[in-house]
Amino acid sequence: HLGLTTNLGIAWENDLPSPVHSYAASLDISITDYLGAFGEFYGFWSATDDIHLFNAGATILLLPDFQIDLAGGIGINEAAPDFYAGGGISVRF
User: Fold this and answer.
1) Does pTM surpass 0.90?
2) What distance lies between CA 85 and its chain's CA centroid?
3) So what's the pLDDT on residue 1?
4) Which of 12, 15, 28, 55 would be a feasible disulfide site paired with 38, CB 3.0-4.6 Å?
5) 76, 53 in Cβ contact below 8 A?
6) How far apart, in whole angstroms, are the C-alpha atoms of residue 60 and residue 13?
7) Which residues on adjacent β-strands are paired with residue 39?
8) Which residues neighbour 27 within 8 Å (Cβ) at sequence distance 6 or greater?
9) How far is Cα 49 from Cα 64, in angstroms, rounded to an integer?
10) Among residues 45, 87, 53, 41, which one has the least CA distance to residue 68?
11) Residues 6+ apart with CB under 8 A from 10
12) pLDDT score of 9 more than 90
């Protein structure tokens, strides 16, 4: 139970002179039926700025339609934050 997810994006915002590009590559693994882990490289770049990051974390399926996740990460380049942590809740309807 191993998965690889990738994404490329581009967005134009009204106040920016050029588009912002984004990318992500995530490797996910199911450890048990209820516990998973992931690692992800992602970032954003434009004509004026680049931000590149890495994070890793775990997902815990508490109920069939209710999951929590915890993650922490680091910035890869100078413009990115040094480190960060986060969490989330997912509910399927």
Assistant:
1) no
2) 11
3) 87
4) 28
5) yes
6) 35
7) 27, 56
8) 2, 3, 4, 38, 39, 40
9) 41
10) 87
11) 19, 20, 21, 22
12) yes
Q: How is residue 42 written in tokens?
A: 């992602």
Q: What is the percent of the chain with per-residue pLDDT over 70, rounded to a whole number? A: 100
Token readout for 33 is 């039926």
Question: Which of the four pLDDT bands, split at 50, 70 and 90, describes residue 49?
Answer: confident
pLDDT at 13 over 90: no
Q: What is the 3-state secondary structure (H, E, C) of 23-90?
A: EEEEEEEECCCCEEEEEEEEEEECCCCEEEEEEEEEEEEEECCEEEEEEEEEECCCCCCCEEEEEEEE
Strands 66-75 and 50-63: antiparallel
